[in-house]
Amino acid sequence: MEKVKEVSIILLQAHRLVALPEDFLKRYHTHIYCHRGSLSFLFNDRSYTCSPGEFVFWFADSKLANLTFSKNIKATVLLVEKDFLFANIPDQSWSIDVVLHSKENPILHLNDKTYKQKVLSNFQLLFDKFSETSHRFYSEVLKLQMQLFILEMWHTFANEYEHRKRTLESGSLYERFMQLLQEHCMKEREVQFYANRLHITAKYLNYICKQNTDITASEWIQRYARERIILLLQNKKLNISEIADEMNFSSRSFFTRYVRKVLGVSPKEYRQRMGD
User: Fold this and answer.
1) How does DSSP classify residue 4?
2) Residues in domain HTH araC/xylS-type (predicted)?
3) Per-residue b or e along 72-111, where b marks 16 or more CB atoms closer than 10 Å to that residue's CB
4) CATH 2.60.120 domain locations along the chain
5) Which are the contacts of 26, defined by CB distance < 8 A and separation ≥ 6?
6) Where does CATH 1.10.10.60 sit in the chain?
7) Is residue 242 helix, strand or coil?
8) How far is CA 63 from CA 109, 171, 247, in A?
């Protein structure tokens, strides 16, 4: 039987005091369900507040600051070691969508009690399986439970994503552009594509983005493409040619030039640095 490397999964029931490990942001993916009170934080330089009935999620190494909890906080916290979670992701394309969505929307609104119970039950099931070290097939069942956990969380994410998509369809041009970007940035990297979908000119789309965020549409497209490239290069099951095909580049050499532009190194050099 294959053994799981030393893995750490922590489940906390926090009342008034939330004692997170010092290295939690570096070592763990963080999941927090807020029962009472609130927590506030800066995420990617934007301010957020998580209220009762809401669920917050951060990937390890997220740009997080000023995390504070209200005095009456009651929360369920699950910390999952980052390498173990990534090693058991069932579908890489969905993981990319989750990362990009979470970078823009770290808080999920679980208004439906059914989803609240599913999330909390999912936390408990994973922790229980992690704690059952005497199980004859401990490594195998823990990995399977990790995959089930991820699929359940993706199910919750997908419902939130669809709700947000419906809401944004009637939103501003900028909001609709950002929604289109999340959906199509894997294969579409030209401003004109998004402008056509919005029935405006590329120049006007750049202007709208600049007015809203001081960042042009072309810069936003490059940022999202960069995120996807990094995630795909981190998946060592894919070779560089397969990634180029997945992202709709006409050739591996064109993909390599684009990666040099957005990352400053070639795909091969990036992977070598990952191994350092």
Assistant:
1) P
2) 175-273
3) ebbbbbbbbbeebbbebbeeeeebbbbebbbbebbbbebe
4) 9-167
5) 60, 61
6) 169-274
7) helix
8) 21, 27, 26
Q: Which CATH number fits domain 9-167: 2.40.128, 1.10.10, 2.60.120, 2.40.50?
A: 2.60.120
3-state secondary structure of 255: helix
pLDDT in tens, 111-162: 667 778 888 999 999 999 999 999 999 999 999 999 999 888 888 777 666 6
- Looking at the chain, the number of H-run helices and the number of E-run strands are 12, 8
Q: What is the DSSP string of 88-147?
A: T-S-HHHHHHHHHHHHH--EEE--SHHHHHHHHHHHHHHHHHHH-TT-TTHHHHHHHHHH
Indicate the Cα dihedral angle 137, 138, 144, 148, nearest 10°: 130
d(CA 167, CA 214): 24
Percent share of the chain, pLDDT over 90: 43
Class of domain 169-274: mainly alpha
Give the predicted TM-score (pTM) of the model: 0.65
Can you spell out the DSSP letters for 181-198? Answer: HHHHTTT---HHHHHHHH
Q: How many Å apart are CA 137 and CA 116, to the nearest integer? A: 30
